[in-house]
Amino acid sequence: xxxxxxxxxxxxxxxxxxxxxxxxxxxxxxxxxxxxxxxxxxxxxxxxxxxxxxxxxxxxxxxxxxxxxxxxxxxxxxxxxxxxxxxxxxxxxxxxxxxxxxxxxxxxxxxxxxxxxxxxxxxxxxxxxxxxxxxxxxxxxxxxxxxxxxxxxxxxxxxxxxxxxxxxxxxxxxxxxxxxxxxxxxxxxxxxxxxxxxxxxxxxxxxxxxxxxxxxxxxxxxxxxxxxxxxxxxxxxxxxxxxxxxxxxxxxxxxxxxxxxxxxxxxxxxxxxxxxxxxxxxxxxxxxxxxxxxxxxxxxxxxxxxxxxxxxxxxxxxxxxxxxxxxxxxxxxxxxxxxxxxxxxxxxxxxxxxxxxxxxxxxxxxxxxx
Length: 370
Description:
Helix content is about 40%, strand content about 20%. The protein is α/β, with parallel strands linked by helices. The chain folds into two domains: about 1-325, Rossmann fold, CATH 3.40.50; about 330-370, no CATH class. The two termini are about 40 Å apart.
């Protein structure tokens, strides 16, 4: 398939592996931000092909994984009400809340729907005028324009039975939070190509020199990732700390300005709590006052719901998402924590690091420990 097969070409990939080996003279630790990149790295064994001095660690680039348990519990509380249809993307249904998940709520009779776009919820609202339709909006900057469009159209169409439980998060503040940690291991970043397709990459330019780290905007196929690693190592070896764009076929410095304007029209920046990490200033999006009637937190007074976390203390997902540990370092991995019975969100999501290791590395890990 054109524009895919050439980025999975084994010979090209091997050339980049050899090129990385030639320029590597010191140990370097590089973090890929996006969970999609993590899955490609693990699926294709990219980390196994690299020189032993290059270590890849996985970042918090899974929006489902970083959605706080408090919001999941509030979504469950909404879905449990007989007059409410709660809609979200499929990954969210298995993410554990304090006591249960949305799939369990659905099994108990809650009206929980899977949608592929936030705009689908507008049709649901029109078809069910006597019910309230709530979209559980989760994602990075990549999905924020579609969420903003749904709110904008609901305003234009005068829909009174539609609202959103918003949990959108922003990547650059999370990178700064990781880099500011005294335990930070990151020396270079592979930035998420799809986020930069929307937002561009100028927002990363102050971060690179401030924290003395190169940042390479990178795609998701094996050759993309290997080229991104090569560009990052080249900078590290030469002492440079710049922002480079590997994903030039999709990303421009300015990004999609129409999408950015739509986001600014509907949302404003706020602090946001990240599951397993804590609150990061300026890392979330909330609805502007102009659109506040579409905020499910306000409409249903969900701020009154208090959560006392009873989640497993055995789960180390926070450390995994900060790049401090890897999934196989968790004693529960693949035994007490599986996709069928997850202790934490990274084992559920299609972008979660634990799910990637379980799917592609579980047998290898079992053989290594047997």
